[in-house]
Predict the structure.
Amino acid sequence: MGVVSKIVGAIVEYTRNIDREVERGFNLNEWGDLMKYLHGLQIQAQLLIDLFQRASSLLGYVPSTYVNAGEILLREGIIDEKDFSFIVRLSGFEILLFTSICLLIYVLLKTFCVAVVIGECFF
């Protein structure tokens, strides 16, 4: 159960840190604040998903997806419908964030490559 304890400890730590930052105030129109909270929430979401997957594995199952891990825990009576609905939404949030980050990296790299090409042409 050492891994589960570490995951739960990390969830508690991220939740505490996010709560502390929220209490200080924030402006999501500022890029730095937005990225800080998105990153914190993404890590927190991934930790919760990891917890569900680890719990289903400890029960002897091999979940094929994040949602499947939730289905296993629901079927075993470990979580209820509300918890299952949450993991489904959380999985969607994690996938959306990952996709958004990949697209952002692509745009940044493409912009950098254009800048390099233009720089080579003009300098």
